[in-house]
């Protein structure tokens, strides 16, 4: 279609408000958001006013796209989808509330049981920790650690230590910490070369398919729009063989190809939207490569092994 007016995010949000009174708003980056549901706009032909709208429910890993090629009511359809995603999310959360509360109680009970097992010798551990760190054991308090089955010991100078009865407990706590961190920052900054390469943790088939589709689109578009350039690049090859030649020339690191062509931010979004990372496996690999102290000892990165067998890490 041609000469379509491209709507602003404010106009799209107004369309949402007409359907239902939900707390949708335009955030600082220009997206429309409402409690985990988001709507983004991609203008792929400004001259003709062609664009597409993406609606996504991040928590439930659902998304849907609407473009002007499938009708002028693109905004209305996307707005209705946004409201449907929002309502479905809240109905689901309401149904799951009682079950969620029971699971939380069970989780807290398990942590309490683990703490009760540790209380028998935790005072002796605190004495050893105080001696090792130059603190007064009489000023110490302790509670369940944020991560894993351990205790957090705090001295009167506000030094906090995460302490675990076994190294395996410390590793499990580190895995929990790493998963939280990955959920916050994604995979940017991860040194995959130290843990076997990104293909060990990311579904590379998705990126291979994306590279092949890109090659096929490029060849088809070039042949139609610039036959002379097509002949210069591919000679007398038909479209299928030309696309295969271009695809082969891309190499076999399709994740790196995607990042070079679309950027690291888009790579992160695609990985999250399509659930392409095994975060459990990745978190465990980071712990295995760097050790529990890398995350749990946020203050100095050091591990303290006490005579009683506990492993302690200064959090702050």
Helix-strand layout with pairing:
Layout: H1 9-19, E1 25-26, E2 32-34, E3 37-45, E4 50-57, E5 62-67, H2 74-133, E6 141-144, E7 151-154, E8 160-164, H3 167-185, H4 204-225, H5 227-234, H6 239-249, H7 254-262, H8 264-273, H9 279-290, H10 293-296, E9 303-305, E10 311-314
Antiparallel strand pairs: 1-2, 2-3, 3-4, 4-5, 6-7, 7-8, 8-10, 9-10
Helix pairs in contact: 1-2, 3-9, 4-5, 4-6, 4-7, 7-8
Provide a descriptive summary of the structure in words.
The protein is an alpha+beta fold and 316 residues long. It has helices spanning 9-19, 74-133, 167-185, 204-225, 227-234, 239-249, 254-262, 264-273, 279-290, 293-296; strands spanning 25-26, 32-34, 37-45, 50-57, 62-67, 141-144, 151-154, 160-164, 303-305, 311-314. Helix 1 (9-19) packs across helix 2 (74-133) and helix 4 packs across helix 5.
């Amino acid at each position: 279609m041609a000469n379509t007016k491209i709507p602003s995010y404010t106009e799209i949000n107004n369309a949402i408000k007409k359907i239902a009174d939900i707390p949708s708003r335009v955030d600082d980056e220009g997206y429309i958001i409402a409690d985990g549901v988001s709507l983004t706009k991609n203008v792929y032909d400004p001259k003709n006013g062609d664009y597409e709208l993406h609606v996504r429910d991040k928590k439930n890993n659902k998304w849907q796209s609407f473009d002007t090629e499938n009708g002028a009511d693109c905004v209305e359809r996307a707005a209705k989808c946004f409201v449907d995603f929002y309502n479905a999310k809240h109905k689901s959360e309401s149904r799951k509330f009682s079950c969620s509360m029971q699971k939380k109680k069970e989780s807290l009970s398990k942590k309490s049981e683990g703490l009760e097992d540790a209380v028998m010798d935790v005072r002796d551990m605190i004495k050893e920790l105080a001696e090792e760190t130059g603190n007064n054991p009489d000023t110490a308090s302790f509670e369940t650690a944020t991560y894993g089955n351990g205790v957090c010991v705090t001295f009167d100078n506000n030094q906090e230590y995460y302490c675990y009865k076994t190294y395996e407990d410390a590793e499990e706590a580190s895995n929990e910490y790493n998963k939280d961190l990955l959920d916050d920052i994604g995979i940017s900054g991860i040194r995959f070369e130290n843990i076997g390469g990104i293909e060990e943790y990311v579904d590379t088939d998705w990126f291979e398919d994306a590279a092949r589709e890109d090659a096929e689109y490029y060849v088809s578009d070039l042949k139609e729009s610039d036959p002379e350039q097509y002949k210069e690049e591919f000679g007398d090859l038909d479209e299928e063989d030309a696309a295969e030649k271009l695809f082969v020339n891309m190499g076999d690191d399709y994740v790196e190809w995607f990042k070079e062509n679309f950027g690291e931010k888009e790579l992160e979004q695609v990985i999250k939207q399509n659930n392409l990372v095994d975060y459990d496996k990745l978190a465990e690999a980071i712990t295995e490569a760097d050790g529990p102290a890398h995350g749990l000892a946020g203050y100095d990165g050091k591990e303290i092994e006490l005579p009683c067998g506990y492993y302690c890490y200064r959090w702050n």
